[in-house]
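Side project, low priority. Logging it here so it doesn't get lost.
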Amino acid sequence: MKNITKVGLSALAGALAITSVNAGEMSISGSMEASYTKGSGYLTTGNPLGMDKELSVTGSGELDDGTTVSYKQTITDAMAFNDSELVFGNVLGTTASVAMTSTGSPISAIDDVTPTAFEEANALIGSIDDVNGMDGTYGIRVTMADVMGTGFKLDAMYTTDVGSGDAQADNGTSGEDGNVTDDGKEITITGSVPMVEGLDVGVGFYTVDGKGKSSAGEYGQDEGTAYIKYSTGPVSLGYQKGVVTDYTGGAEETQFTNQYYGISYKVSDALSVSYNEMDSRRVVGGSDVEQDFDSISLSYTVGGMTIGVADAEVSNASYTSGRTMDETSVSLSIAF
């Protein structure tokens, strides 16, 4: 990982040294979603009608040597600035890219890639601890779209201070998280298996260690995940397993083991349906609790509009033994 970081820094420095940029363009895009959500098994109050919106301001250009430059700034529902990134593509004439970004991370991008028509099994109810890496922290991300002609993609990221948030003002430094004040590293390798049409695999790993710097004592977290997917005709199948090991402030080590199963069927170009299951097991001290999710969902797309329906159930919700919940959601989303 140290070598990957050095390569990324060198490539970024080389790209930044080139100052001549061809004329680029700026654009704004986004989406809105209106929904109706209703559930049982817990106290539901308030209006079941909801709305969510996302906006992104993007810009792009090209340097004289063919290196591409793109910028993205997301905007929250409250019209406040959120994640941002600056990406240099086709670095040194290769398929590699180097980014300064807080928009996602390699392992968070593959936290659950099992096939689904609309929502993941745990999207509506319950709560789990799953692989998430340094998502939301500004860092250096290096991506190689085709490693040595294998067709596999390598995606790696490094930050000096996990939990410090998005980039600060020019020449400024990000604030520190009281419990997480050390560097984080993560890497994923994903791609299609040669000579086996329709078979995709991927693995990922993330680690952070704040030993001696946490006000609560020793801190550390390791995350790993692996998946396999197969598609033939209109049918897609997938299985994935993720593990999170957390030790914080001298407390007992907590381990979360998550397994995902999914099958989807594309009825037509517009209509898809899926069935998904997930179980999330938490082990800490003498406690061992497993949440079990199952969900049916469908989506119907016309142009830039998508209608989605999901119905989900969970037992031992939020790792609380005997707590059962179910929820149904209907949404209408439009991209613009």
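Brief comment: Residues 4-20 have pLDDT under 50 and may be disordered.
Revisit when time allows.
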